[in-house]
Specification:
The complex is a heterodimer of chains A (112) and B (114).
Chain A (H helix, E strand, L loop, with lengths): L3 E4 L2 E5 L4 E7 L5 E7 L5 E8 L4 E4 L2 E6 L4 E6 L8 E8 L7 E3 L3 E6 L1
Parallel strand pairs in A: 2-11
Antiparallel strand pairs in A: 1-3, 3-8, 4-5, 4-9, 6-7, 7-8, 9-10, 9-11
Chain B lengths: L4 E3 L2 E4 L5 E6 L6 E7 L5 E8 L2 E5 L6 E5 L5 E5 L8 E8 L9 E2 L3 E5 L1
Parallel strand pairs in B: 2-11
Antiparallel strand pairs in B: 1-3, 3-8, 4-5, 4-9, 5-6, 7-8, 9-10, 9-11
Classes of the chains: A mainly beta (112), B mainly beta (114).
Chain lengths: 112, 114
């Protein structure tokens, strides 16, 4: 089964609003990563947060990690139409195997 | 540009056939991953190689096989193709150890089985 599960499956917001998507996972991890995928294209790495970190920022992105709840959230502030994409979280399923497992993603649509 | 090259970009073939997908990892990356993405689905991990050796295996069908060559490029072989094998196949690469390194994805090979 999938290690990561994103929520919601789809999200539609107006330009300028914030978008929050969540990821839950099942086992202990070394790190959690977020990726963006524009339609039919390859995934682009956004941010990596290590298991001993609780929050990380990169530009308009803010990621939190709660290892006790096995969950992470990705916040995109002041969204733009160009942020329209699918967002995936990825975790290493078992420590040491480097086998990154992706969730089914959140489809974000930002309306201009 | 991620630096990961996948060829071909598109592939159309018939059921029962065999195809080979090729991946050249980013310069300096020793680890290669293969993923399958069916329509509107997440990515299914298939297999991972490091410096020529298989390191992790996912839900890869027995009809599928892969290898990583001494020059670090990798090939994914799909045989006895079925309609359900139609999907985007992605290759990604990373440095080793990769547990704190991001994956760099190619743009994928879109396989259509008719």
């Amino acid at each position: 089964s999938q290690q990561g599960e994103e929520d919601p499956q789809a999200l539609s917001i107006q330009e300028g609003e914030n978008a929050t998507m969540n990821c839950s996972y099942k086992t202990s991890i070394n790190n959690l990563q977020w990726y963006r995928q524009n339609s039919g294209r390859g995934l682009v790495h956004l941010i990596l947060i290590r298991s001993n970190e609780r929050e990380k920022h990169s530009g308009r992105l803010r990621v939190t990690l709660d290892t006790s709840k096995k969950s992470s959230s990705l916040l995109i502030t002041a969204s733009r139409a160009a942020d329209t994409a699918s967002y995936f979280c990825a975790t290493d399923a078992t420590s040491g195997t480097y086998k990154y497992i992706f969730g089914t993603g959140t489809r974000l649509k930002v309306l201009a | 540009d991620s630096g990961v090259t996948q060829t071909p970009k598109h592939l159309i073939t018939a059921t029962g056939q065999r195809v080979t997908l090729r991946c050249s990892p980013r310069s300096g990356d020793l680890s290669v991953y293969w993923y399958q993405q069916s329509l509107d689905q997440g990515l299914q991990f298939l297999i991972q190689y490091y410096n020529g050796e298989e390191r992790a295996k996912g839900n890869i069908l027995e009809r599928f096989s892969a290898q990583q060559f001494p020059d670090l490029h990798s090939e994914l072989n799909l045989s006895s193709l079925e309609l359900g094998d139609s999907a985007l196949y992605f290759c990604a690469s990373s440095v080793w150890p990769s547990y704190n390194s991001p994956l760099h994805f190619g743009n994928g090979t879109r396989l259509t089985v008719t």
